[in-house]
Amino acid sequence: MSKEEIKNNQQDQNTWHQITLENTDRRGALKKMTAGLIAGVGIASTSCSVFSEDHEKEASQMSWDEFFKKNYKIMSDDERIQTVQRLESLYEKKTGNTINISHQGPMEDVLFGYAFNISKCQGYMDCVNACIEENNQDRDSQMQYIRIHQIEKGHGFNFEKAEDNYYNEVPANNHFYIGTQCFHCENPPCVSVCPTEATWKEKDGIVVVDYDWCIGCRYCSASCPYDGRRFNWGQPHVPEEEVNKNQHYLGNRLRKKGVMEKCTFCIQRSRSGENPACVDACPTGARKFGNLLDPKSEIRWILENKKVFRLKEDLGTEPKFWYYMD
Amino acid sequence: MNSFKLIASLVLFTGLVSCSSNHEKEHQYHGNFEKIKALEVDSISYPVNSLDLIGQTTLVEVKTEEVTFYIPERKSSIKSFKCSECHTKSIPELKASNLTGKRAHWNIELNHATPDVLMCNSCHPTQNLDNLKSNLNADIDFNQSYKACAQCHSSEYKDWLGGAHGKRVKGWVNPRISQTCVGCHNPHSPKFETRLPSRLNTKKIEERR
Amino acid sequence: MKVFIQFFKDSIEEVTSGSKAYHLWMAFLTLVMLIGAYCYYIQVDQGLIVTGMSDGVSWGLYISNFTFLVGIAAAAVMLVLPSYVFKDIDFKQAVLIGEGLAVSALVMCLAFVVVDVGGPANLWHVIPGIGILNFPNSMLSWDIIVLNGYLFINITIPLYILINIYQNKEPNKKVYLPGVFISVFWAVSIHMVTAFLYQGLQARPFWNTALLGPRFLASAFAAGPALIILILTVINKFTLFKVEDKTVNKIAIIVTVAAQINIIMLISELFKEFYFPTHHSISAQYLFFGLEGKTALVPWIWTSITLNIVATVMLTIHKIRTNKKFLIIACIILFIGIWIEKGFGLIVPGFIPGQWGEITEYTPSFIEIGVTLSIWALGAFIFTILAKTGIAVETGKLRFVKK
Question: Which domain holds residue C206?
């Protein structure tokens, strides 16, 4: 075990407390018989060499188990480790490359919040680029979580008059810029409407999707007032050399067709203390991220000292994404 | 009688819907601020430390009454510091002496405020180029260049100390490490330049055709 | 048990034999279904990208038809109440047709949902026990429960009655009457729940109106019985099963009243949207007048309104309504009008403009249309089988013979 792994494991032990785990395995007898076997296989596959026939058998067994696994939300810690190992080794078998999928839980006493400085955003869209690269979004459909709206001054925040797909010198004369993405609402309508609980709010406030549990009904996307959700209409595709190999189960791991996805505040980064990619990429410092439960954090200073507002506040969704001006 | 039964069952049905929608395991708060106030913690220790995230960078402490945080050290990244190693003569003398050899930063143009407000020697004292200077000619260390900026940009300075202005380096965890003013702004031309956006989504154009 | 096996054997025999027209009709439906199956294969293979839907308009023709057919299913059974409970003999004959229609409409509803989801293989995730059903929070989970429950009720009641008649026994009222009551109450619920599916979304002001549920019911009680009138006419013509004019006239009155109420609600809605248009009226503006030169739905909705008004006027005038020919024309017009209004006239504008004002229009792709047609063919296929068996039993052609 490398240092990394040890570190990860320790963190996991410290930070699991979110969900009451269900002991009863509800996937039936089939799953029960194979679960133990596969737990071993996942670990063994990295160290032992096996015959190619066995290899294929093993891969199909793994895909089988992947198909019949539980919703991540109710998996035990062990089950989470097993599925992560299966996904890692399936990827390795398919491409020959190794990836690292984290299953790190939320940190204690953390509730993520985000603030966006409208005075500072210049509309460069560096955040959009960084987000796509970090989160392995489908290149074919040019999926983007973030949208930057270019609004002419003198109309107020009139999104109907905004252009969110501009290509002109920015900042353009007499225009201002405002970014939208998933606001990680405290009362997320998307979570209520999901028929399979494939999307939920984590303890640190991040609204996540279990891509393997989603059935693709798109009810969540209809219920989101902020256009925060994206659907994989076709088979998503990221060139192998562009794949971000540092992944999280609930974050940027590769998706499949027919499932919903969304911004996760870069869960693979934020849960290990880093800023989301958009915050890091913004050259003007318009994007602010931090822990709302820390009274000394910058985000709290902004909320308490600037005149902040949120979009469509009247809908009662309580976004954790605030806007402010200098 | 029968129609009454029908109505009664309808009422019962809708009642069921409204009751059950309130059912939630997690404790419910009336909005973010109530939740924040209920759960906030005065001193938090995170399992990760931002110093680990940034690797080998030397930092400078910024300390005021309200906050303490760190900014990247500046002097070691200035090419051929100390300045006085080259600037053996004062600038007017240097200009007059018709020097040959490598010229370092002769092409800097000052695009910051107007010439009646700011000139090179407003910040760089011609007598001692190893430091910056304040309006009242006090020395300002290059590592604390924000103090020079703060003289005019007091509201930006206040926002920067608080965290509304500026940018964090790498992580959001403690201790706070932020960019200093010159980490993002070129002090000689502090305004961000206009350019084309980094990306155009051609699929979206197709879709909305 | 023996009776059941015999019943199924007999019914299979019944549905596989018939006139030339009958065979042609079934062959035609099978062909459409096969074409649709191929379209669906392409859709499963390549993903929903082959449809006209996008992140802008993420529900389209499938969900539109689903919504409309829930109404048909609900309305069909509303004929049950007067027949069984109020002992109105007139209706009794229509009931069997109604329940058959409900069953086939429900099968179509479920099929439309299945073809609409991105991961049909994952649908077992909604089954409680092996999966998770987000009940009661998600209105979709309510819908899954009520639709399947309704399907169950509507299969068991007619089956019980038919089996008894098949054996020359009188069906026991104590057994089926509670079922009838439940099914009537359930019929209202499936439609209200489906309306709540949309009505509960604060993100979509076009749907987020208290009128949506009642309007769903009114339009359903107009379109559903209208379809039954049409079907009864066909059955009267092609089979030995005769329904009296008296019954048809009674159903026509139901259609008329429902269509009138529907028009009143439409006026109320239009008034609210356009007397003092707010930011929330913008979807209605798009639907009725178009926005920024984008007018894809405008001709459709005005066609629908015209059809609705013409049909309602025709039905309201006593002389026209009692004229068989005009009644049929009015029913066809009304059915089409409501299909447009409640199908994509309701679903698509809910998404336009998008949450940040952008306008992405929607046009169904050929594959989508193919799948849709094939599901309608499936519904017609199932209905024909059910009706043929039912009629055979009712007319006494099919009877249990101890061998």
Answer: 18-394
Token pair for A301: 């200073």
CATH of the domain at C291: 1.20.1630.10
B chain contacts of residue A275, beta-carbon cutoff 8 Å: 168, 170-172
Nearest to B32 among A171, A302, A318 (CB): A318
Decide: A251 and A267 in contact? Cβ < 8 Å: yes
Q: Do C202 and A195 count as a contact with CB atoms less than 8 A apart?
A: no
Burial class (CB in 10 A: 0-12, 13-18, 19+), B100: exposed
Query: Is C11 domain-assigned?
Result: no
Task: Give yes or no for A144 touching B (CB within 8 A).
Answer: yes
Question: Taking CB atoms and an 8 Å cutoff, what residues of chain A touch C131?
Answer: 71, 196
C215 within domain boundaries = yes
Domains and CATH numbers, chain A: 3-102 (no CATH), 106-326 (3.30.70.20)
Residue type (1 letter), B32? N
- Chain A partners within 8 Å of B39 (Cβ): 109, 111, 293
Pairing of strands A246-248, B132-133: unpaired
pLDDT tens, residue order, chain C (403 aa) = 788 888 888 888 888 888 899 999 999 999 999 999 999 999 999 999 999 999 999 999 999 999 999 999 988 877 777 776 666 666 666 777 888 899 999 999 999 999 999 999 999 999 998 999 999 899 999 999 999 999 999 999 888 888 888 888 888 888 888 888 888 889 989 999 999 999 999 999 999 999 999 999 999 999 999 999 999 899 888 888 888 888 888 889 989 999 999 999 999 999 999 999 998 999 999 999 999 899 999 999 999 999 999 999 999 999 999 999 999 999 999 999 999 999 889 999 999 999 999 999 999 999 999 999 999 999 999 999 999 888 888 887 778 876 5
Number of domains in chain C: 1
Interchain contact B68–A (C-beta under 8 A): no
Q: Where are the domains of chain B?
A: 43-97+109-191
Neighbour subunits, C (≥3 Cβ pairs < 8 A): A, B
Pick from A164, A194, A216: CB nearest C117:
A216
Of C118, C126, C130, the CB nearest to A258: C118
d(CA A321, CA A307): 13
**b/e burial code for range C264-282 (CB count within 10 A of at least 16 → b):** ebbeeeeebbeeeeeeebb
Provide, as residue numbers in chain A, all residues whose Cβ is less than 8 Å from the Cβ of C140: 193, 195, 217, 219
**What pTM, to 2 d.p., does this model score?**
0.88
Q: Does ipTM surpass 0.90 in this model?
A: yes
Strand partners, C291: C294
A141: number of Cβ within 10 Å: 22
Partner-chain contact A275 B41, CB within 8 Å: no
Residue with tokens 């459909």: A141
